[in-house]
Specification:
The chain is built from 7 helices and no strands. By secondary structure, the chain is mainly alpha-helical. It has one domain.
Length: 204
C-alpha cells in the first residue's frame, strides 16, 4: 500500500506543477519558457540531495544525461523547440535514470497515439485534403495539390505540430507516478523498493 511521506509529496508536487504549467504555456503559446524550466531544474537537484543524498545526485545526473542528452541530439538533428529539450532536462533530474527511460518510452507512445487520434478526427471532420494542407510538408501545395517541400522556419514548424510536446510528456508523467506508486514499476521515486532502501539506510 502506498504510504505518503515528505519525499513523496515533494516529488509529486514538483513534477505536477512543472508539467502542468508547461502544458498551459505550450498549449497557449507553443512555448516552454526558461523561467519555468530553469528554477525546476535547480529544485530537482535540491530534491535529490535532500532526500537521497549523494546517490540521489548520481541518479539525477544519469537521468539528466540520458533525458536531456537524447532530446538535445534530436533537437540538433530534427529541429523542434529548445523548450521541449529543456523541459525534459528539468524533469529528468527529478525522475532519475530509471523513470527517465520510462518517461521517454511512454511519452513517445503517447505522441504516436495522440497524433493518430487527432489526425483521424481532423480527416473525418474537415477532410483529408485540408489535413494534408495543414500538416504535410510546410502546409503548402502546388496547383495539383501535391506538397511543396522547402526549408521551414521555426514558426512554420510549430504551426504544423499536431499537439504541444508538453501534453504527451505530462500524460506520461502522470501514468508513471501511478505505476510507480502502485509498485508496478518497482524502482523509482515512488517505488516500494527505493523506499525500502531508504528505510534500511536510516536503520544502518
Amino acid at each position: 500500500m502506498f504510504e505518503w511521506t515528505l519525499q513523496h509529496i515533494a516529488f509529486i508536487v514538483g513534477v505536477t506543477v512543472l508539467t502542468g504549467i508547461a502544458v498551459y504555456t505550450d498549449a497557449r503559446k507553443f512555448r516552454i519558457p526558461n523561467k519555468l524550466t530553469m528554477p525546476f531544474f535547480v529544485l530537482g537537484w535540491i530534491y535529490q540531495v535532500s532526500f537521497w543524498g549523494l546517490p540521489g545526485l548520481g541518479d539525477g545526473f544519469l537521468g539528466f544525461v540520458v533525458g536531456f542528452g537524447t532530446y538535445l541530439i534530436l533537437w540538433f538533428v530534427a529541429g523542434g523547440g529548445a523548450g521541449d529539450t529543456k523541459l525534459m532536462g528539468a524533469l529528468s533530474v527529478w525522475m532519475g535514470l530509471r523513470l527517465t527511460i520510462w518517461l521517454m518510452i511512454l511519452s513517445t507512445l503517447f505522441v504516436v497515439i495522440d497524433s493518430i487520434a487527432i489526425s483521424m478526427y481532423k480527416v473525418l471532420r474537415y477532410g483529408a485534403k485540408k489535413w494534408k494542407k495543414e500538416h504535410l510538408a510546410t502546409g503548402k501545395v502546388d496547383a495539383k495539390g501535391k506538397p511543396v517541400f522547402k526549408k521551414e522556419t521555426p514558426e512554420e514548424k510549430r504551426a504544423r505540430r499536431m499537439l504541444p510536446f508538453a501534453v504527451p510528456v505530462a500524460m506520461a508523467t502522470l501514468l508513471l507516478m501511478v505505476l510507480n506508486g502502485a509498485g508496478i514499476i518497482k524502482e523509482g521515486q515512488l517505488g516500494p523498493q527505493r523506499a525500502a532502501k531508504q528505510e534500511q539506510a536510516q536503520v544502518d
